[in-house]
Amino acid sequence: MADPSSYRPKPGQIPDSPGVYKFRDEHRRVIYVGKAKSLRQRLSSYFQDVANLHPRTRTMVTTAASVEWTVVSTEVEALQLEYSWIKEFDPRFNVKYRDDKSYPSLAVTMSEEFPRVQVMRGPKKKGVRYFGPYAHAWAIRETVDLMLRVFPVRTCSAGVFKRSAQIGRPCLLGYIGKCSAPCVGRVSAEEHRELAEEFCDFMAGRTGTYLRRLEQRMREAAEEMEYERAARLRDDIGALKRAMEKNAVVLADATDADLIALAEDELEAAVQIFHVRGGRVRGQRGWVTDKVEAVDTAGLVEHALQQLYGDELGDAAEAGGRGGVPKEVLVPALPSPLEPVVQWLTDRRGARVDLRIPQRGDKKDLMATVQRNAQQALALHKTRRASDLTTRSRALEEIATALDLDSAPLRIECFDISHLQGDDVVASMVVFEDGLPRKSEYRRFQIKGRVGDTQLWHGTGQDDVRSMHEVVSRRFRRYLQEKQKTGEWQEQDAPEEPAGDVPGAPAGPGGAETAPGAGGVPGADAAAGVDEAGGPPAGPVGEDGRPRRFAYPPQLVVVDGGAPQVAAARRALEELGIDDVAVCGLAKRLEEVWLPGESDPVVLPRSSEGLYLLQRVRDEAHRFAIAYQRSKRGKTMKAGPLDAVPGLGGSRRQALLKHFGSLKRLRAATIEEICEVPGIGRKTAETVAAALAQAAPAAPAVNTATGEIMEDEAATAASPATRGTRP
Questions:
Q1: What would the 3-class secondary structure string for 489-541 be?
Q2: CA dihedral in degrees (386, 391, 396, 399; nearest 10)?
Q3: Which of 88, 362, 477, 486 is most buried per CB count within 10 Å?
Q4: What is the secondary structure of 275-344 as a DSSP string?
Q5: What is the pLDDT of residue 224?
Q6: Rounded to an integer, what is the distance from CA 617 to the centroid of its chain?
Q7: Quick one: what percent of the chain has pLDDT higher than 70?
Q8: Quick one: which of 70, 86, 87 has its CA closest to 78?
Q9: d(CA 354, CA 326)
Q10: pLDDT of 414 strictly over 90
Q11: CA-CA distances (angstroms) from residue 483 to 488, 548, 551?
């Protein structure tokens, strides 16, 4: 690993002008190419304290061994040279968009004597007109099959064409009217080329004139009572319209445009492009790439523009669908600076290009569709990546190597804390086994705000570190108690359980552990829950037939956070005497892996499968914690004065509201009147009356139409037992 100061240029050597620079490693391989409006300012930013650099930039400058640059006249020239060098050197630290598959296109070989219509993949060839690309080859064949009825262009291979010419008999398509059979001389080479030109014009979007000409010929044939010819023309018109319907009309003004949308996370980005020609979607393509350099959305858009149009020249409308640059390019974010990119696109098209973000109307709606496609493409890519057994095995091995573990962590548990400004503090625990989520093992925690028997705070602060210490302590305390039951842990060595946290006993008001299906009810038994998908709980079963809680220890504990959270988790394990469970933390902002007692984080490569797995585990814990915290917050907001009455369950609350009709009448009732409700004793009635007296009544509702003060019936309306009744 090189020290950037060892190859830093001397002061004054770097010119203050536009240019392109290259970083090379010790083997003289180009590892990064960049452009700058001012080479001096840009390159100086790489040679500051490495601790202040982005992790990806830090990795690049420490891998490099030298830097060189080329001065150009304008920023447009810098953009062109940057693209050329990226294409030539393929630097490892540059974002490179690659097709996630080879998209097929409809091609017409106009360079041949008898042009042929066919499906083509891969790089474009000279003398061939392309339309597309399409998502599926069968979509091209369906379109061609409809259009051959009107434009009977040759579709056969060179061998079939030559054989038919030798035997003097056309193929089957020639007999059924879907080929003009130039192989046997039914049409001349000029006539066949004219058919191919009409086919290309129709595919390029110039459809209105040709359809009107066919309709006129159909009417003339009908007037001359040539009904069979009129019927054939009618069927031809229908076939062309069906071919047009396969590309939905999306822009009413017949615009030629490309729409580019992105979906990204910290590690990867997916780009989707819709090619719109003549107001219709003529093609679609997309890529997924690793974010190997520190780049924002605008930077990703600029890279995508270079990838799309770096080899294109001319107008897209004249090039026919796939080639060329359209007059309008719609993007989710504008590159900065914008002018050089627009000028570069204009030079490649030969005319002005409008590069902008759609703000309203049909174009904005279509951009939302492209965005959804990008999000689906990224989600599908992640799903395929996560479900691959070989990839999961490699990820676990990379984690074991990076964290210096004795073996691959087959069971990983991740903890996350969630709260809303210090209120409703909860935690989540998710479990991944063999790289896949095991939702039946997920657990949720209400944070009690204490360690051992010492009360630390009362839910008013935002102390994620103490919360992390508490939740890890409670999880592994239960694990040790399970070992104690089986005799694997001696009773005198078992940690003392704080009051209110005894396994199997109802938890106090401070907190509880619940399984995903327990609904977050304080005191619910974690083992009695169901998994998040709704199935029965899995895992070892005790003598009473109920699943044992926290019976399996993980090989790795992951916490959402940096060094403080990792230290808290490690301290919790040490206090319990557990030294065979590894701990690490994943900081979301920079995706750094923190280890206990280390001053510097472990930086995994951005393309690492191990980092991708850790990110999935962390994101799943965060999702699960957020969902639980929101559900608790919703229940708190819906709670009424009767919910705070100790010993008063849901059935008796409903009975009280049904008897009195409203909370206002219940508040005004005497203790004797409350005792008249079935199931309510005098002690309970006194408790209810005291609780309602302490609770401040809500402000009266006012009917804005009449000015009348409405009676408080909010509790009545909210109660299923009293819905539809009146006081």
A1: CCHHHCCCCCCCCCCCCCCCCCCCEECHHHCCCCCCCHHHCCCCCCCCCCCCE
A2: -90
A3: 477
A4: EEETTEEEEEEEEEEE--S---HHHHHHHHHHHHHTT--SBHHHHTSSSSB-SEEE-SS--SSHHHHHHH
A5: 83
A6: 15
A7: 74
A8: 70
A9: 9
A10: yes
A11: 5, 11, 8
Task: State the DSSP code for 116.
Answer: B
Residue 181: CB atoms within 10 Å: 22
Give pLDDT, residue 557.
Answer: 92
What are the residues whose beta carbons fall under 8 Å from the beta carbon of 697, sequence distance 6 or more?
Answer: 664, 667, 712
Residue for token pair 């008898």: 114
Q: What is the DSSP letter of 547?
A: B
Amino acid at residue number 440:
S
Angle at 201 between CA 200 and CA 202, to 5 degrees: 90
As a whole number, the mean pLDDT across the chain is 75
What Cα–Cα distance (Å) separates residue 421 from each residue in 59, 96, 418, 467, 571?
36, 41, 10, 14, 26
pTM above 0.70, yes or no: no
Residue type present at position 561: G
Beta carbons within 10 angstroms of residue 78's beta carbon: 25
Q: What would the two tokens of residue 664 be?
A: 């206002």
505 CB-side CA count, 13 A: 10
175 CA to centre of own chain: 52
State the distance between the two ends of the chain, measured CA to CA, in whole angstroms.
80
Dist. CA 554–CA 412, nearest whole Å: 6
> How far is the C-alpha of 562 from the C-alpha of 90, rounded, in Å?
34
C-alpha atoms less than 13 angstroms from C-alpha of 530 in its C-beta half-sphere: 7
Beta bridge partners of 454: 451
Question: Quick one: which H or E segment has residue 613?
Answer: helix 609-638
Tell me which residue has tokens 């850790």. Answer: 614
Contact partners, residue 376, CB within 8 Å, separation at least 6: none
Q: Which residues pair with 593 in a beta bridge?
A: 586, 602
How would you list the strands of the sheet with 19-24, edge to edge?
30-36, 19-24, 66-71
The DSSP result for 445-462, as a single string, is EE--SEETTEE---S-S-
Q: CA-CA distances (angstroms) from residue 309 to 306, 345, 374, 420?
A: 6, 8, 20, 47
H-only helix segments in 115-171 = 137-147, 158-167
Question: Taken in order 477, 593, 566, 466, is the CA torsion positive or negative?
Answer: negative
| Contact predicate 173/180, CB 8 Å | no
Taking Cα atoms as reference points, which of 413, 444, 412, 439 lies closest to residue 428? 444
Distance CA 529, CA 445 (A): 13
Which residues is 409 bridged to in the sheet?
Answer: none
For residues 574 and 469, give the distance between their C-alpha atoms in angstroms, rounded to a whole number: 11
Helical axes 361-387 vs 609-638, angle rounded to 10°: 120
Instruction: Quote the CA–CA distance of 271 and 100 in Å, as a whole number.
Output: 10
Q: What would the pLDDT profile of 194-240 be if each residue is shown by its tens digit?
A: 888 888 877 776 666 777 777 888 888 888 888 887 887 888 777 77
3-class DSSP state of 440: helix
- Measure the CA angle with vertex 316, ends 310 and 319; round to 5°: 100
Q: Tokens representing 207?
A: 């459809």
Give CA angle at 117 (115, 122), nearest 5°: 110
